[in-house]
Structures are given as C-alpha cells and as structure tokens.
Amino acid sequence: MSKAGVVLDVKTGAERLDTGLPDADRRFMAETLSELTVQTYRTLLRSQVVHWNVVGPLFQPIHTLTEQHYSDLFAAIDLLAERIRALGYPVPTGKAALGLDKALSLGSRLTAKAMVLELVDDHEALVRLIREGAAQAEELNDFVTHDLLTERLAFHEKAIWMLRAIVAD
Ligand SMILES: [Fe+2]
Questions:
Q1: 67 CA distance to ligand 1 middle (Å)
Q2: Domain of residue 47, residue span
Q3: Best CA proximity match to 163, nearest among 46, 62, 40, 60
C-alpha cells in the first residue's frame, strides 16, 4: 500500500488525526462545512446572475454590491474547503456534490427588486445554517471552525442589510 493509502482511510475518506477532536466530531463538522461550501457556491453563482442581468435605475448599486459579494464568497469557499481538509476530510467535488446540477432559477425577467430579494433569501438561509454550525462547532470544541463560521455569519448578516437597503421603498 502506498504511503497515502496508509494515512488515508479510502473507504470513508477520513484521515487519521490525533488532535483531540474525536473522529465522529471531525466528520460531523466536515459534513456541515461541506453543506456550507455547496450553498456558498450556489449563492456566489446567483449573485453573479444578478450582477449580469439586473436592469433599471438601481443597476449601478446592485451591480457593484453583487460584485463585492461574489468576490467575498469566492474567497470564503477556499477557507471553508481548506477547513474541511484540515479536519481530515476530502472536499466535495463534482457537479451534484457542489449543487451545480440544480437550476439557478433566477431569470432575467425578474425585476431588480425581486432579484435582490431572492439573494436576501439565499443569505438568510446561509445565516441559519451557519448559526447552527457555529453553535455545534463550539459545543464540540472545534474552535477554529467556530471562529471561521462567526466571520461568515457577520458577512452574510451585513450582506442582508445592504441588499435590503438598496431595494427599500
Ligand atoms: Fe462584472
């Protein structure tokens, strides 16, 4: 067996680590982070769809804000994926695993306000997932994941505020 085969449990994809975090807890947090990676990718792509297709008097602020958001989300995906690896698990790959097989369902016929409110829904869904994940990470003594998720929470809550402010009546 190759050296990689020795340290890598091919069956589960888990690497053996002795860091004080039990295997089951590392697996649990890796799965949570995987789900967040998928949902973050989806929100990135939907932010880009709005960035490109939005029209109307709010074009410029929405175009600018969505670019800031997808840039941040791109960087965040790297941090989430690298945390999965540090926990000893492989990062999900493939179209289905990344949720890219699902339609982005953001047509260019939507009004600017409707598009932005769809993004608000995406960020709110992520906030709910991240809040739960951060609480679980703390409970399992996975402080690094907890800190990362707390930062992600701050980003998404601020994104919700700004998106809502742009389309407020
Ligand atoms: Fe652009």
A1: 6
A2: 20-166
A3: 62
- Ranges of the chain whose pLDDT falls below 70: 1-13, 97-104, 107-108
Going from the Cα of 44 to the center of ligand 1, the distance in angstroms, rounded, reads 13
Let me know if residue 7 belongs to a domain.
no
Place of tokens 């982070």: 33
Domain-located, residue 116: yes
Distance 3 CA to ligand 1 centre (A): 44
| Structural domains in the chain (count) | 1
102-137 pLDDT per residue, tens:
666 776 678 999 999 999 999 999 999 999 999 999
Give the domain CATH number at 37.
Answer: 1.20.1260.10
Is 140 within 8 Å of 32 (Cβ atoms)? no
Distance 52 CA to ligand 1 centre (A): 7
